[in-house]
């Protein structure tokens, strides 16, 4: 079946910024494409362990069609840093994105969230403060609690291949960062959260 083959990681459209911004004690990365005054952007929120480029093909199509798109790397993911003492939660990541976009002068936006990005988006929608600037949201591959996920997927060969790829990509994006510590924080979060009711 097709789902047993891991496709190549797509590329983000160029140019790709290397700039990060200090938000809530970490350096967060984002990239705006087709920025337009008074336009409402589509914010793309990636899955766990991955980063913004995993939405690269979708972003490229949206950009080619003229949409204003913002790619983000959540706390610890991709080009965004984390602190050794951080306890990752979807609530914290929702606040990070909210504060990052507010700092960037983005007052309203739509969100597309996949997997951990879906759960981060749902956490944002539950909180009146982080929900306020979200006009619309499309989430897929998320869950209301850890029991709602496929408990055996992490035992598959394709998942092992994905994690190995993420380790290599992480080393290129954040040389010297501790991927094992990062992945452990993500794994702990995914094993215990969310607890949406």
TrEMBL record:
<dbReference type="InterPro" id="IPR029058">
    <property type="entry name" value="AB_hydrolase_fold"/>
</dbReference>
<dbReference type="InterPro" id="IPR050471">
    <property type="entry name" value="AB_hydrolase"/>
</dbReference>
<dbReference type="InterPro" id="IPR000073">
    <property type="entry name" value="AB_hydrolase_1"/>
</dbReference>
<protein>
    <recommendedName>
        <fullName>AB hydrolase-1 domain-containing protein</fullName>
    </recommendedName>
</protein>
<feature type="domain" description="AB hydrolase-1">
    <location>
        <begin position="41"/>
        <end position="128"/>
    </location>
</feature>
<dbReference type="Pfam" id="PF00561">
    <property type="entry name" value="Abhydrolase_1"/>
</dbReference>
